[in-house]
C-alpha cells in the first residue's frame, strides 16, 4: 500500500483546459476559517510548475488573499502573460462559486519564473548560529487547527506565548521546520513554509487578536538542485515584524537549509484587529 | 504662469473607459533603455487612486516588470477584482503596441487598498540616527540618465562607488531624498521613492554590471494624513541586499520621514549579469 503525502494530496490539480486547473481544498491543511494561506501559495506554485509552457524555475511569487476559500472545489486560472529570453511572467487567480452561485475571485497572484545561470554569488544574511534541530524539543501543535499537524517544528526562540497576558516582547521567531511526515523539499513546499509563522502581533503583544495575511511575497534563491540536496532535512525559518500600525503589520522572513544556504526570503502584510 | 511638476506630468492619465487609462511615457523620468521603474510603479498607484470605485488607501503594491516600455503611449488596465468590507484587491497591467503592431503586456501589478482604523501600533524599525539632510551635500546626478535629475539626494552612507575597481563592500545605503523640485508627498511619489536605490550589486562589487528590477513590492504604512504632514520634507531611504545568487539578488528597503515615521517598507528582486 502506498500512502500519498498530505501535501501531495493538497496539490492535486486537474487540468481542464489550457491554463485552467481544478483543485479541492484539503482538510489536512485547514486553518480556522479557511485553508492555511501557505497551502494556497503552494498550490499556485504547483500550477505554474505543471504548466506545459513554463520556462525556468520560480523566482518570485506574490499571493493576495482577497477572500477566504470555503471547503470544496476551486478553479485556478494560470496565464503566462509574457515570455522573455530568460524570464517568464505569470498571472494567476483562484475562483470559487459562492453561496449565491456566483463565481468569485478568492485569491490573485503573480509569479515570475527564470532560467538561472551561474554567476558571482554572495550571501549577506548568513544563517544565525542556533542549536541543531535534534537538540531541540518538538513543539506540540496548538490552537486545535489541523494544518499545524502537517509540520514538524522545533523552536529556537520566539515561540507562541505561554501566557496571553498582554506583555510586550520582541517579534523575532526562529524555528527549525519541515513537512510532517518528512517529504523532499520542492518549490510548492518551500512556498508554504514561508507562511508557517504565527502572527507576529500575537508574539509582540502576548495577545491573540484576530489576524490574517493579506499579501505575501516569496523570493526563491534556491534552484531545483539545491532543494533536492536539502531533501527531507530541516529548514531554519526566521521571522520578524517591522511596523505594526493601524490594523496592519508587515513581517520579514528568511529560510535557510541545514547546510546554511538561504533558500528563500519572504515578506507579508497582515491584518490585525484592535 | 503655472508650471506642472514633472511628476504630475508623468502621472497624467486619460480615462478612456471603465478601468482603462491611457498614459504616455515621460522623458523626464527616462532611464537607460526605458522609463525609471519607480515612475511605472507611481503611475499604477495613480490609476488606482483615480478609479471611481476605490475603497481606502494603498496598503500593498507589487509590480512585475515583464518587458521594457518604449517611448510613447501606453494603456493601463485597472480592475478591482474583489471588494470586501475594509479591503479591496486590484489587478493591473500596462500594455503597449510593439514594433509589429501587437498589443503586448509590459508590466503586471497587484494592489491592495484598505480602510484603516486606529489600533495599537508600534515601530520595530526605528529610524537610524543619521546626520540631518541640511548637513549633507547634495549628490550630483550621475550616469547621464534623466530621471536622476528628478530627485534631490543627500547621501548618508553607501553612495555610488567612486572607483569601479571590483572591491567588495557592504550593500547598505542610506540617503535623504525628495522630489526635485520639492512636491508634497503622496502615494504615487512614495511608490517611486521606494525604487530610487541604485542596484545593490554595483555597490557590493564596485562593478557596474547590467542590472534591472524584475519585481518590487511596497507596503504602505503611512496614511494620507501622514503623507500630507510629511509634505515636501525629506524621506530617509535605507536599502540593503540580502542574497546575491546566480543572476538575481533581493533588496530590502525602508523609508522614514524626517519625524521618524516609517512610511513604507519595500523589497525587490533584481536581475544582474555575470
TrEMBL record, chains A, B:
Taxonomic lineage of the native organism: Bacteria, Pseudomonadati, Pseudomonadota, Betaproteobacteria, Burkholderiales
Q: Which residues form the signal peptide?
A: none
Indicate the segments forming the Acyl-CoA thioesterase-like N-terminal HotDog domain, all copies. 27-111
In Swiss-Prot or TrEMBL terms, this protein is called Thioesterase family protein
Organism name: Acidovorax bellezanensis
Q: What Pfam families would the database entry show?
A: 4HBT_3, 4HBT_3C
Which residue ranges does the record assign to the Acyl-CoA thioesterase-like C-terminal domain? 137-271
Please, which domain of life does this record's source organism belong to? Bacteria
Amino acid at each position: 500500500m502506498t500512502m500519498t503525502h498530505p501535501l501531495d494530496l493538497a496539490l492535486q490539480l486537474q487540468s481542464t483546459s489550457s491554463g485552467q486547473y481544478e483543485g479541492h481544498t484539503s482538510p489536512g491543511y485547514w486553518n480556522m476559517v479557511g485553508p492555511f494561506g501557505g497551502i494556497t501559495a503552494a498550490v499556485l506554485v504547483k500550477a505554474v510548475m505543471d504548466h506545459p509552457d513554463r520556462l525556468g524555475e520560480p523566482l518570485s511569487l506574490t499571493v493576495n488573499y482577497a477572500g477566504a476559500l470555503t471547503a470544496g472545489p476551486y478553479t485556478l486560472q494560470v496565464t503566462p502573460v509574457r515570455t522573455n529570453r530568460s524570464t517568464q511572467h505569470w498571472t494567476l487567480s483562484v475562483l470559487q462559486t459562492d453561496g449565491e452561485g456566483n463565481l468569485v475571485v478568492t485569491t490573485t497572484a503573480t509569479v515570475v519564473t527564470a532560467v538561472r545561470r551561474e554567476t558571482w554569488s554572495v550571501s549577506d544574511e548568513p544563517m544565525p548560529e542556533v542549536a541543531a534541530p535534534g537538540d531541540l524539543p518538538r513543539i506540540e501543535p496548538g490552537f486545535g487547527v489541523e494544518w499545524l499537524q502537517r509540520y514538524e517544528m522545533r523552536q529556537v526562540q520566539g515561540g507562541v506565548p505561554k501566557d496571553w497576558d498582554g506583555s510586550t516582547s520582541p517579534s523575532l521567531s526562529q524555528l527549525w521546520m519541515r513537512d510532517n511526515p518528512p517529504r523532499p523539499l520542492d518549490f510548492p513546499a518551500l512556498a508554504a513554509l514561508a507562511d508557517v509563522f504565527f502572527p507576529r502581533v500575537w508574539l509582540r503583544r502576548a495577545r491573540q487578536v484576530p489576524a490574517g495575511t493579506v499579501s505575501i511575497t516569496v523570493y526563491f534563491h534556491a534552484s531545483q538542485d539545491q532543494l533536492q540536496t536539502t531533501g527531507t532535512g530541516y529548514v531554519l525559518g526566521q521571522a520578524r515584524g517591522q511596523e505594526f500600525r493601524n490594523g496592519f503589520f508587515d513581517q520579514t522572513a528568511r529560510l535557510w537549509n541545514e547546510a546554511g544556504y538561504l533558500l528563500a526570503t519572504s515578506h507579508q502584510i497582515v491584518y490585525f484587529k484592535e
